[in-house]
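Good morning,

Attaching, inline, the backbone tokens for the sequence recovery test we're adding to the shared suite. The designed sequence is right after.
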């Protein structure tokens, strides 16, 4: 079994018996997003109520919900404007549903008789609903969860925590063998799919060799990486290294740079604790300076000043289009770039339902099957390995 490297081979050689004995479930987990403008405030409230997104000192945990409510009410008007600018809601549910229904994984997973479910962390259909109402009803016998391309405490870690909470208290779920794909940024199929998209977009410029490839990643507070062991930054950097290596192998030798998104910084700064978990820092950023987020920050003005004339933006930390690609990058960054002397602008689309990517994700699911274990066992392993 350990030698099976592609899903087709795996299905052919290893798994004909699987379908007869197992009922496989695949839960596609995502952040979720407001479907209309009325959803924005309660969605934000769910997001900020997550102790993996806003980490309060133990003594102040009781403030998590009221604080989330307050922050969501304060941020809602501006955030509604941003969602309005991309059509009045988030595309995440539609895209994630599409991933589940995509032809390629269906073909591979159908042979394994897999049921594909969608569960969101902060909005409908919540992970809790998918698990309690669908997965339990279907009495599946094995569950695989592909989570996010790179591991962050704020995304993957938070989703695993919800999963553990639900599974620990249920007789059937606590015994269900589960395999969590904690990251997949290093998979060849994923790297090749991004490289394909970059090559396609570069060819649309007049002088492709002069384009700066600008990787744009979501930010997280530095304290997550330095104090809590979040591997996110390392994984982002390694992911870019692997993409550039793949491009080089294809003869593409463009310059590249990485920056963490900036307007995200403005929003987080106003509402997050500083490194010392000091309560007095809350919402008093003007007095104490902003929360440190991963650097380098996005600085398009500086790139313009340095003489960059052509730039291809590549969103790197999320596999679907969402508000930060469609509004922050396509509108905010593009405008600023053009005003800063960058004359030619392009953007690589998020992979979404690209068939090479979806096929690779299905491969990852199939390869993860042999390592499925009841979550109570996985929890022990997670403790030992400190979230990596
Ligand atoms: C790699 C992906 C993401 C990381 C890391 C992440 C961390 C993080 N996010 C916030 C605050 C917000 N996130 C919001 C929405 C949102 N975030 C991600 C991804 C990551 N977040 C996605 C895919 C989405 C959904 C977007 C959509 O289309 O609906 C929001 C609301 C929207 C916005 O204002 O941008 C907030 C606020 C924090 C504080 C954080 C780490 C500490
Ligand atoms: Fe976020
Ligand atoms: Fe964000």
């Amino acid at each position: 079994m350990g030698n099976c490297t592609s899903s087709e081979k795996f299905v052919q050689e290893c798994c004909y018996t699987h379908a007869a004995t197992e009922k496989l479930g695949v839960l596609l987990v995502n952040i979720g997003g407001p479907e209309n403008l009325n959803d924005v405030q309660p969605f934000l409230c769910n997001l900020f109520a997550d102790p993996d997104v806003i980490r309060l000192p133990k003594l102040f945990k009781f403030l998590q919900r009221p604080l989330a409510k307050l922050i969501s009410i304060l941020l809602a008007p501006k955030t509604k404007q941003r969602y309005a600018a991309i059509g009045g809601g988030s595309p995440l549910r539609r895209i994630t549903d599409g991933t589940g229904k995509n032809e390629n994984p269906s073909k591979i997973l159908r042979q394994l008789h897999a049921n594909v479910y969608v569960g969101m962390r902060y909005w409908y259909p919540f992970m809790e609903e998918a698990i309690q109402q669908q997965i339990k009803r279907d009495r599946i016998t094995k569950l695989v969860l592909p989570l996010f391309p790179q591991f962050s405490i704020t995304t993957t870690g938070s989703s695993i925590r919800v999963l553990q909470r639900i599974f620990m208290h249920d007789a059937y779920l606590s015994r269900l063998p589960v395999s969590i794909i904690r990251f997949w940024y290093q998979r060849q199929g994923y790297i090749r799919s991004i490289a394909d998209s970059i090559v396609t977009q570069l060819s649309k410029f007049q002088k492709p060799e002069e384009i700066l490839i600008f990787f744009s990643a979501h930010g997280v507070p530095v304290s997550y990486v330095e104090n809590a062991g979040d591997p996110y930054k390392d994984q982002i950097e390694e992911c870019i290294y692997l993409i550039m290596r793949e491009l080089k192998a294809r003869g593409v030798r463009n310059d590249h740079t990485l920056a963490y998104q900036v307007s995200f910084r403005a929003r987080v700064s106003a509402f997050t604790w500083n490194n010392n978990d000091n309560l007095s820092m809350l919402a008093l950023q003007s007095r104490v300076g902003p929360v440190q987020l991963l650097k380098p920050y996005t600085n398009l003005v500086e790139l313009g000043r340095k003489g960059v004339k052509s730039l291809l933006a590549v969103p790197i930390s999320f596999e679907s289009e969402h508000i930060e690609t469609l509004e922050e990058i396509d509108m905010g960054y593009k405008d600023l770039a053009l005003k800063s002397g960058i004359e030619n602008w392009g953007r690589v689309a998020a992979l979404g339902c690209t068939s090479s990517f979806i096929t690779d994700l299905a491969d990852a699911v199939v390869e993860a099957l042999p390592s499925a274990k009841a979550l109570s066992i996985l929890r022990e392993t997670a403790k030992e390995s400190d979230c990596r």
